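fyi for ur records
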Amino acid sequence: MKVIIATKNEGKVKEFRQLLAPFGYEPVSLNEADINAEIVEDGETFEENAHIKAKAVHKLTGLPVIADDSGLEVEFLGGAPGIYSARYAGENATDKQRNLKLLEEMQGADTPLRGARFVCAIYFISEDEKEYCVTGTLDGFIGFEPMGDGGFGYDPVFMIDEDTSLAMLESEEKNKISHRARAMQKLAEELRKLRNVKRK
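which gave:
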């Protein structure tokens, strides 16, 4: 059974391929499905944006769909950048520019005020049009300068302890604890339930 992964990010597709293999799904990216539709993600939460994306792709293909939306929430900034994480420093900003803007916004904030979390919401529409939404989070805090060369996005400034940023972890290690990994574990639980129900 084919399932559309509503992304053009092949790294994400690879992660979902590993997750879905035991459940008999064959993941197909938007590129592979030749879908170029512009989907306006105008929800107010990660869950709403993932839902919008999943529904739009399902309507186009009639196939099962998995869509996700993720970002960074910082306590000192009242939950920003949140759903605007990718556009926080402007539409075409680099990861480095986004991190620098975040650090500028955090100037003067001591460690107790720098709490942050990554959030990932995954929305799944099954072949019989049942809908599931799961969310995974990773708690940490924003450091005072970028550290590490790995990862992407806000990883260099997101600290999981006083000495370690996400960008300092090997990808295998990061993928065990990340917000997306935690959301995917919850999705796997839902898929297991779904498969067991069908067997009965």
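The helical segments are 10-20, 46-61, 95-105, 171-177, 179-199. thats all i got for now
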